[in-house]
Amino acid sequence: MTDDAPANGTTEQPAGGPPPPPAGSSAPDTVLRPPAGAIVADPDDVDGPATDPRGAGAPPPPAVGAGLPGPADPGDPTRATRAGTTAGVVALGTGLLGAAVVIAGFRSRSGDDGLDWSNYGVGLGATAVLLVIAILGALAGRRAGGRAREEVVTWPGTVGILATGLMTGIGIDRDDSWVGYLIGGLIAVLAAIGYTAARRAAFVVVAILGLAIVYGVAFDDLLADSIGGDHPQVTAAALVTVFVVAVTVLGWALPSRAVSGVVVGVFGLAGILGALGSFAVMRFLGGIFGGMGSMLGSESGDVSSMMGGDGGFREADVWWVVALGGVLALLWALAAAVADHSGFSVLAIAMPTLGVPLASLALAAEHPTWWAASTATAGGVLLLGAAFLARLRGRRTAAPTA
What we know:
67% of the residues lie in helices and 0% in strands. By secondary structure, the protein is mostly helical. It has a domain at 229-365. 27% of the residues are buried.
């Protein structure tokens, strides 16, 4: 025995290795485990342990779901998320076919001899090509086609649906209510079918247009006579508000709820601002004709009374429209908070920014400074509250990590 041998008579193990079994034992007390990444033979493999084809020292294969790149699924091509050249070709082709439909729409009824079948036939042919291309694209496999398939379905489909409504109206050429119901319903139904095929928001926008046509015709049939025409701006603003709220709420269940809500919101914003703008124009014209009446005599005074020397409308109508605009602004602010979409924020900003000045013009505010000071104060209070809420939210978010 040398001085280098251990005192207990056992052989010295390398540093970091497993402890030796006690003397006299037939089996070790500890189970020796292979290092991580080693290729372990299957106990049931009678042919011997499998060899690693990648060679010794190669890293282990990535686990499934580990987020590392792996072999592509044959049914899900790696480039399916990009349309590539297909998008540009589809856009140009759809635009040219749409131009043919528009030209045919203008020329089919331009003469006094009735329907010009040469132009109308070209329009029908272009419409048919658009719809057939969209249908062929929809028949392709969803996973195999990917984004390119969606482009082929979406843009020829939406333009073809609009062209179908246009060609239907030109072909029937009647002012009956059922024509409006037919066109609007046809557009909405075809857009719903297209949405199930491609799940693109463009079909939702087209469906909103079809529903708006049906909504307008239904109001004209059912409520226009009973409401009367004494308050046209208020009536129009109320119709717009109801339609915007209904479409926003009903469309919230769809994945494209942000697009549908913002699109119909733009329609609502234009309607409310249009009503307030008409009040302002009437006030301006009333002031002009009122001044002319006082300068030129009673005849011009009759004209000014017809236009309305005070604007030709009740000031309460302006306030009703302002209130309806406020309802929409609150709806969009709530949608911006829930959906986290900047489009709703833009709508909520644009309504008071443009609507309140138009209302002050329509009401011929004698003290516009008070209007500016009031809106500035209210806006400042809201922004301070928002800054306080943001600070609290930041503290709550940072608290668990502190």
